[in-house]
């Protein structure tokens, strides 16, 4: 898909998934605490707190797990495009 093509430029730098992990970590923290004190990305606190209201803790956790799984799979040398496609489908499935 188009989204996978966008991510393809990071194919040789799988650390880009850490950005996803950080986002979902902060989103979960915002959901569970309702404030910005536990956020790492404090400059994005308004956005994160707003987005957290749209999600359930389980959905955020599932998205976080999808990214972690993709990170593990990429470390095992799986097909990048297929791995990203699966990760994005799992994330989209959990979007309310």
Walk me through this protein's architecture:
- There is one protein chain.
- This protein has helices spanning 2-7, 17-33, 45-52, 57-75, 80-93.
- α2 packs across α3 (45-52) and α4 (57-75) runs antiparallel to α5 (80-93).
- It contains five helices and no strands.
- It is mostly helical and 96 residues long.
- The longest helix has 19 residues, at 57-75.
Features:
mainly alpha; 5 helices; 0% strand
* Share of β-strand residues: under 5%
Unreliable spans are none
Number of strands: 0
Helix segment tally: 5
Helical content (DSSP H or I, runs of 4+): 55-70%
Mean pLDDT: 92
Radius of gyration: 14 Å
Structural class: mainly alpha
Order of helices and strands: HHHHH
Overall shape: it is: elongated
Cα distance, first to last residue? 21 Å
Quaternary state of this entry equals: single chain
Largest sheet: none
Helix-strand layout with pairing:
Layout: H1 2-7, H2 17-33, H3 45-52, H4 57-75, H5 80-93
Helix pairs in contact: 2-3, 2-4, 4-5
Question: What is shown here, in short?
Answer:
By secondary structure, this protein is mainly α.
